[in-house]
């Protein structure tokens, strides 16, 4: 029962994500950020993560795109946990999304930010139970909205 409820909620969030994405030009208060990551090991390919946030609606979503792939994989926001640091430094934050492929939840992405800096991204495939680590690739970052420079 819990799994069915989770699937239903993810589908609703996915539809909201599509609605927001296609209405971005008409609604300018949506913040979009792009992050480029390289794998810790040689596999899999490099990855681009784009996030979207609408503060007024209290909504956020994302997608990932692997290097040399034409397809994007939609992500549904699950949770964001902030750990306050000492001495007024920016908080550490861990954000989690689940990926939705053909209407099924097939894996999860977790991004860690250390202070004000992007740290790492981890992907876990639910079917194989394999995890893959990525590190932020500052050299691949491009101008806002243009994606990664590979």
Can you characterise this structure?
It is built from 1 helix and 8 strands; from the N terminus they run αββββββββ. It has one helix spanning 2-23, and strands spanning 30-39, 47-54, 59-66, 73-83, 92-101, 104-114, 117-125, 131-136. Strands 1-2-3-4-5-6-7-8 form an 8-stranded antiparallel beta barrel. β7 and β8 form a beta hairpin.
Descriptive terms for the model:
150 residues; mainly beta; Porin; 8-stranded antiparallel β-barrel; 1 helix; 15% helix
SSE arrangement:
Elements: H1 2-23, E1 30-39, E2 47-54, E3 59-66, E4 73-83, E5 92-101, E6 104-114, E7 117-125, E8 131-136
Short description:
By secondary structure, this protein is mainly β.
Give unreliable regions as ranges: none
Provide the gyration radius in Å: 16 Å
Report helical residue fraction.
10-25%
Order of helices and strands: HEEEEEEEE
SS field, number of helical segments: 1
The spatial strand order of the largest sheet comes to 1-2-3-4-5-6-7-8
